[in-house]
Specification:
mainly alpha; Alpha-lytic protease prodomain-like; Alpha-Beta Plaits; 2 domains; 9% strand; elongated
Length: 308
């Protein structure tokens, strides 16, 4: 089984346990903050299911219908997950404001909620750390989005836990919906981050500047073998990168030499940036500008001798 698929399954299993636990305890306690965390975990479960589906589909090779592969399905999944987070935040805000207006409701056994939230913090932290590592190793935007879901749950569960502790010692029931509002604010912040990370590749934005610099440095290592390069274009779909460029070579070079040069450059780029497809269009030097740059072309020497 693919490591990304296995990680997504772990996330689904952990979220099922947390949703059932939080819903049951939150309903029994009459706590809007605990219930809001249950809804949050419910959306985490949906997100984990979406991540599982997307990484399974994205790992399929290119076919006749999808010539560039299926990588962008991860970006689509990440966008859907971000929208789900926004919906969760809206529901929490609505319920919290309604309870603040009414002055808050009595909460049963807040320390029970503290224990449940503490357990959720530990589980979500461990699972999110695992997902972040797999997402980093495999460059999976869907798993990264799922990891952010769970890491946000860590912070919000900790906030609810502290709110319940304060409620237990003070008896101020309005603290429960107030903490829920703080939870909602943190959820919205995470949703904004995820939306940007997931949607930008759908717009075919260039790779990050540091990655493009790596590509340029690799090409520059072979500067003595070509005249110049131009029209460098990059983009990303899920974890898959696409790089294409035009490479101007001395016109007298044999096609085998040019092919090997392009292959070497492509191999070095793929070694530095995994999951990269490199397309190099080679073209012969054909202008005075090219001749000024090239120092190995016999035609330039011929022109110089004729001029003398």
């Amino acid at each position: 089984m693919d490591v990304r698929t296995r990680a997504a399954r772990v996330s689904i299993f952990s979220n099922i346990i947390l949703v059932l636990g939080k819903l049951g305890i939150g309903y029994w306690m009459h706590s809007v903050s605990v219930m809001s965390e249950a809804i949050h975990s419910g959306l985490d479960l949906v997100a984990a299911a979406i991540a599982y589906f997307s990484v399974r589909e994205a790992s399929k090779p290119a076919d006749a219908e999808h010539r560039y592969g299926h990588g962008k399905i991860e970006n689509i999944a990440g966008t859907i997950e971000a929208l789900l987070i926004f919906l969760a935040a809206i529901w929490i805000i609505y319920e919290a404001i309604k309870r603040l207006i009414s002055g808050g409701h009595a909460v049963n056994e807040p320390l029970t909620g503290v224990a449940v939230m503490g357990g959720a913090v530990v589980v979500n932290y461990l699972v999110s750390r695992y997902l972040f590592q797999v997402a980093k190793d495999t460059e999976s935007i869907a798993l990264e989005a799922d990891a952010w879901h769970l890491r946000t749950d860590v912070y919000t569960s900790a906030g609810v836990m502290l709110g319940l502790v304060a409620l237990y010692f003070t008896g101020f029931y309005w603290l429960d919906p107030l903490v829920a509002l703080v939870v909602a604010a943190m959820i919205i912040r995470a949703a904004c981050h995820l939306t940007r990370e997931a949607m930008l590749p759908l717009m075919d934005v260039s790779l990050p500047a540091e990655e493009e610099e790596v590509i340029k440095e690799i090409i520059a290592r072979h500067a003595h073998e070509y005249v110049e390069f131009h029209k460098l274009r990059t983009r990303k779909a899920g974890r898959d990168r696409q790089v294409d460029l035009h490479l101007v070579v001395p016109r007298y070079k044999h096609i085998d030499y040019v092919h090997d040069l392009c292959e070497h450059i492509g191999d070095e780029i793929r070694a530095a940036l995994p999951y990269t497809d490199v397309l190099i269009h080679a073209e012969p030097c054909s202008s005075v500008v090219d001749c000024r740059v090239c120092t190995t072309c016999p035609e330039k020497e011929n022109r110089s001798s004729k001029a003398n």
